[in-house]
Amino acid sequence: MSVVDPPIAERHALWEDALALPSGAFLMSFGLFLLEQIGGVSGGLAGVAILGSYWTGASFGLVFFLVNLPFYWLAVRRMGWTFTIKTLITVTLISALSAVHGLYLDVSSIAPLYAAIFAGLSIGVGMIMIFRHGASAGGFGILAAYLQESKGIRAGYVQGALDVLVVVASLALVPLDILAYSILGAVLLNMVLAINHRPGRYFG
Description:
The chain is about 70% helix and about 0% strand. It has helices at about 15-35, 45-55, 60-70, 70-80, 80-95, 100-105, 110-130, 140-150, 155-170, 175-195. It is globular.
């Protein structure tokens, strides 16, 4: 009985990356925009940036871009220049796009629970798109992607553990009801990652 070799994963073309990274960044930035509008918080370094923007009054995009800078050293050392450049592009796009949504969309009357659910799903899908094209959303995402590639630990689990730390830190700045909605959104985000982003399951 002959053994059929598994299909070889085909690299994404440059034009595919050029479409996927902005698309993933758009989805992520929109989810983060919704959380900002309800005074909520995300997990990971994006959550740190949101809390930093609440605390300092600076824009989320600026804080998010700055807090990511130290993580590029790990990205270069562990993941290579291609991954790092793609991640830098993605983070820059998220930072810029997060300020654009409010110019075209008024969500001041959106229900916080709905916003948190939509945000968690939007961010999770955006992260999958970014991960599958050899990049991350920066910060904790770099660490999550590295541990999945090198240690086989699912990115969703790593991101989830770090999310818990950020949520605990947000207790001083975020109302409890909004925090509860944010936690639900974070749970949905990490379910999306854990279920849909497994090494060896997908090709191409």
